[in-house]
Design brief:
Blueprint (H helix, E strand, L loop, with lengths): L1 H24 L4 E10 L3 E2 L2 E6 L10 E4 L5 E8 L7 E8 L5 E3 L4 E2 L2 E2 L3 E2 L8 E8 L4 E2 L2 E2 H15 L12 H19 L27 H12 L11 H21 L8 H32 L15 H15 L14
Parallel strand pairs: 1-12, 1-13
Antiparallel strand pairs: 1-5, 2-7, 3-4, 3-6, 6-11, 7-10, 8-9
Helix pairs in contact: 2-3, 2-5, 3-7, 4-6, 5-6
């Protein structure tokens, strides 16, 4: 009997040790936090989805959440295998049936600066940004200008024969991509961003007047340009979201055309209609920026906003030269270059 008890005890200990060893072999999931704000006016209760940057079909949502009442969000990407979570990530914010936004322009249709824009004007609005993690948490604000720059990077990767592989890009190369895309967006808007990175600039909600910079001309100007899109004229049967998306899509067409061929004639085909939309919007932006600046100063009673001059139409030659210089000079976001092809 004693022997049977000893045998049973030995088996129990062995099983316990085996279970313990199996537990120790289970990988510990790794996590990576992404936090930021969705600012086109603060987008409250909007859906936030995270994708791998090279998942062009957006087939796999890596993480999802909703923005809070201030348009802020935090989301966590988890890898159950325990592998380090690194690389480029696309963060997309989509207005759905619950989303509202604060009017951050001097007027938003029949609404005034600071009023709440109802959901029916916002459903379908999609904004994005693209960011890189070396395994650490990242900040990723989303607005209309990061959307334009992100579209430029994605368009570069989509060019046939492009060396840019967003699934295999180094941190240094990715930073160059962001800077090149920022310069292209600046050339569209007529604002010199040759020494700037849109993704790192503090573009704030202009409806919170006291947060608009009174010392940084670039940050202030981009904040007001971002806000100005809320004042776009809305055609019958359309919505504010439709008008903003139409503009962003037009910018994408113009940018993609030039990235594929800097010498392309923008006056023909789809690019001609897109350029017309961009120029019509640019004229509204130029007028509205000054009016928002005045509204902000009236709200705060403080210093004037240091706004750069915003032209009323795109300088096609300057834009083409900027894209051409990026492609032939540094490789950059263009289809010929090496910043995306070296891998990590």
């Amino acid at each position: 009997m004693k022997k049977a008890i000893q045998t049973t005890l030995a088996v129990s200990i062995a099983l316990a040790l085996t279970a313990c060893n199996n537990d120790n072999n289970d990988p510990t999931p790794t996590t990576m936090d992404i936090a930021g704000g969705a600012v086109k006016g603060a987008l409250a209760s909007a859906t936030v989805n995270v994708y791998a940057a090279n998942d062009t079909a957006k087939a796999t949502v890596l993480a999802t959440t909703q923005t809070d009442a201030n348009g802020d969000y935090t989301v966590q990407v988890i890898d159950d295998s325990g592998a380090a979570i690194t690389g480029a990530f696309l963060i997309e914010v989509v207005a759905d049936e619950d989303t509202t936004m604060i009017c951050d322009a001097s007027v938003c249709g029949t609404l005034a600066y600071g009023d709440t824009i109802p959901n029916e004007e916002l459903t379908g609005l999609s904004l994005s940004t693209i960011s890189y993690s070396d395994g650490e948490a990242i900040d990723a604000d989303v607005n209309s200008l990061t959307t334009m720059a992100t579209d430029s990077i994605l368009a570069s990767a989509a060019i046939e024969g492009s060396a840019l592989d967003l699934g295999n890009v180094t941190a240094a190369s990715f930073l160059t991509l962001q800077e090149d895309a920022s310069e292209i967006v600046g050339a569209i808007l007529g604002v010199d961003l040759s020494e700037s990175n849109i993704f790192a600039i503090d573009i704030v909600d202009a409806s919170k007047a006291d947060t608009v910079s009174t010392t940084d001309s670039i940050a202030a100007t981009l904040t007001l340009i971002n806000a100005s899109l809320t004042s776009l004229d809305v055609a019958d049967g359309s919505s504010l979201a439709d008008e903003i998306v139409s503009y962003l899509d037009a910018v994408e067409v113009v940018t993609a055309t030039l990235l594929a061929d800097p010498d392309a004639d923008l006056g023909t085909g789809d690019s001609a209609a897109a350029l017309a939309t961009v120029n019509a919007t640019q004229a509204q932006i130029a007028d509205e920026v000054d009016m928002i600046a005045a509204a902000v100063v009236a709200e705060t009673g403080g210093d004037d906003i240091p706004v750069a001059d915003v032209p009323t139409e795109v300088d096609e030659d300057a834009l083409a030269d900027t894209v051409g210089d990026i492609i032939t000079g540094t490789g950059g976001t263009g289809g010929t270059g090496g910043t995306g092809g070296t891998g990590s």
